[in-house]
Amino acid sequence: MTQPLPDIENLVPHSGSMRLIDRLVEASDMHAVGEVLISAASNFYAEGRGVPAYVGLEYMAQTVAAYDGAKRLATGEAPAIGFLLGTRRYAADRSYFVPGDLLSIRIDMVFNDGGMASFDCAIAVNGMPSVAATLNVFRPQPGESIPTETPA
Question: What pTM did the predictor assign?
């Protein structure tokens, strides 16, 4: 994907206050990099503390969504919904991201088998490594139904 990257609202199906990443700054066939600038206006901001580091999990998931959206748009498809199935080894060196922190979220594909995929993810804060995890995700294939109810 060498063409200019679209604005984030064209890549991630989340809207309004639920879109947490600011932009996708890099994307290839196997990785992507998103950015978030933390401020007092950031979603989940706690006065006097910042944004809890566990929100980094959603920053990672939305970077995966932006990566998938960019790949789909490059082939003429619309961005699609996906699901975060789980995470392994989420480790952060801080409890909060504070105003002024520039988060660079990198995701690297480890495994992709159609709708199931796994990504090694990392967040650098102001250029310094801070958070790491592995995310497992699922994206239904075109025409595949999504269960809307839990079986009894």
Answer: 0.89
